[in-house]
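Hi team,

As requested, here is the filled-out complex form for the glutamic acid run. I kept the field names the same as last time so the parser does not choke. Let me know if anything looks off before we queue the next batch.

— J.
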Amino acid sequence: MTDVRVRFAPSPTGSLHIGGARTAVLNWLYARSTGGKFLLRVEDTDPERSRGELVDTILEDLAWLGMKSDEPIVYQSERLVHYRKIAETLIERGAAYRDYTTPEELQAMREKAQEQGEAAFRFRADRDKLRRGEFSGSGAHAIRFLALDEDVTFTDGVHGDIRFPGTEIDDFVLVRRDGSPTYHLSVVADDYAMGITDVIRGNDHISNTPKQWLIYRAMDWQPPCVAHVPLISGPDKKRLSKRHGAASVGDYRQKGYLPEALFNFIALLGWSPGKGDKEIFTRQELIDAFSISGIQKSSAVFDEAKLVWMNGEVLRNLPLTDFVASLRFYVTPPVEDDYLEKVAELLRPRLTLPSEIQEKGSYFFQEPDEWDAKGRKKHWSDSKLPTRLSQYITALESSEEFAAEALETQLRSLCESWDISAAKLIHPVRLALTGRTASPGLFEMMEVLGKSTCIRRLKRALSEL
Ligand code: GLU
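And here is what came back:
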């Protein structure tokens, strides 16, 4: 059996969105699961729509998701001569012709067809003449494939056997009047040249396949196996778009999502490893479970809430040093590693995104600039609080061991001596230290903040009471 060779072939006309990334992920998983090769090809033949800087962004986003080309990246813009040669070969074989119709004539032909009530305008010049290479005209011209009326059949890895009526395929352009190749020509030329064995791509390409198969047939080339993956829709069943929060991979990357979480999420969009309810997989587990037959026939639903959840799960399970590393970028002002590690341990259960560290743990990095208004009303209105707080500060000042357990014993025994519940002091102290009414365990937090910070903040709160 030939070794599997698959490709992901982005057109650099936009950034890498979730749909594109899903195609890349499925190809990558297939390559890895079969010991084959995953290749990248940049489809930049359209100079007007392709943007150089997007190529870098797309490649960086792919690399961030852990996907790199196993061979040098192919750039279609560097292969124009090659496509041209194939178009000429198709002409020599009587499978394509030079078409001198001007855009104006083309427009008039379309309008006429419409007036006559034809569903679609079709090129039907004298086919025998065209096949013999007898073309009329001179100057600028397109090269068109001479479509046959024979049906095209292929077996799709997702949808099974598909038959496409030849009568529905019009003579399609291979090379435009400006000399640029069309997608159909370049994709077939390159898939063949790169030895691609399997094409896994979005369902939006399914109607392109018959045309491409005609080119393979005319060139006497064996077409690859093909699998068209159902598109992704939003929860409202409409095609996925920005409206659904479905930003580009780069946007998720910027927001601090973890590549492993996004990879996991994307892999499960319309593909199931068949492991019951389990949803968090390592990359290796995904590779081991991958098969094209696990791809669903119906469209996958994009659920951003699930991605958020997955990211939290993956984040919480990272080894501590990796977790800390993921947070560092979001912490201002910068803090020592040891300190961040302690903060990370405390906040880990509360974070779903590394970027949340600044918002959820701001008091670890800066003095709270205000105290929650509701909290003040609820926890700071007891007239005895100032006296108690000042006694507590005195006790803290003389405490030798500033560790969670000792701090807890100290606070509780103080409250006992006043004959009040510990909560009566815990809540006001938390508010004073963090400005908030909720935080990780008070004593663990105090240990991390340290003695001088705690005392300073308590004194400041006391002056506010
Ligand atoms: N460049 C095409 C796209 O972005 C790839 C088509 C293909 O995979 O055949 O959709």
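Two things worth flagging: The chain has two domains: 5-232, 367-464. Residues 9-11, 43, 187, 201, 205 surround glutamic acid (CB under 6 Å).

Thanks,
J.
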